Amino acid sequence: MDVDKIISKIRNGDFKDVKRFIKKNPDKVNRKNSDGLTLLMAACERGNKELITLLTKSGADLNIGDEDKWTALHYAVENHKTDVVAFLVSRGANVNKQDSCGDTPLHWAVMNKYEDVVKVLLNSKENNNLQVNQQNNEGQTALYYACYFGQINIVELLLQQNGIDVNAVENKGWTALHVACEHGQTNIVELLLQQNGIDVNKVNIEGDTPLHRAVLK
To answer: Most buried of 68, 123, 172, 180, CB within 10 angstroms?
Structure first.
């Protein structure tokens, strides 16, 4: 049975043949299908903890990426499988792995507004060296995303992290405060202004400060 068929069975919830395949072919657990997916990625997408455990015990690579450089952790986050995220993190999955756009699992958790997943990832910081200020290809951090999407609870969680950079600048010179002002996130703006070292006069490449963006908006 080829990998495409096995992954199809995983996605359809037909795990009996899959488990048999894994036990008989542990050397094939990291093979990819035509889209670059591994069995572990499909299992994380589905959220079957028993199958995921079997795969990891059989040598599944936690950090291998698909064609878009998504890892099993990216799939677990995107599909809101919080318990699977916690399991992968506990097994040493690379929490800082970036996809082809530079987004980490934390970026995706924030974009999807999954506060519970964000908490799991942040709680792994000490053991897994989570880079809370990691920037994607556009220079955007998780804090930037949280401000953009108006997720004040997630903003609060991020601001509690040691070493959080409230003045991180994306490729066009925008900070978290710029984007919060741009989108009228008043509560978030007030919260950011309470942070030590916040630079209210930061100028983007257009010459605008956060105040300019608030007025223009």
So the answer is: 180
* pLDDT tens sequence across 4-62: 899 999 999 888 899 999 999 999 999 999 889 999 999 999 999 999 999 999 999 99
Total domains present in the chain:
2
CATH number at residue 173: 1.25.40.20
Q: Could you give the residue ranges of the DSSP H alpha helices within 105-198?
A: 105-111, 115-123, 125-128, 142-148, 152-159, 176-182, 186-193
One domain, residues 113 and 8: yes
Q: Render pLDDT for 54-113 as a digit per residue (tens, 0 to 9).
A: 999 999 999 999 999 999 999 999 999 999 999 999 999 999 999 999 999 999 999 999
Instruction: Give tens-digit pLDDT for 117-136.
Output: 999 999 987 667 899 999 99
Taking every pair of Cα atoms in the chain, the longest distance, rounded to a whole number of angstroms, is 65
Residue ending a domain, among 113, 131, 149, is 131
All residues at 6 or more sequence positions from 62 whose CB lies less than 8 Å from its CB, including other chains: 40, 56, 71, 72, 73, 88, 91, 92, 93, 94
Task: Residue 116: give the domain boundaries.
Answer: 1-131
Q: Which two tokens stand for residue 46?
A: 């589905």
Query: Model-level pTM?
Result: 0.95
Clarify whether residues 94 and 69 are in a common domain.
Answer: yes
What's the confidence (pLDDT) of residue 127?
Answer: 65
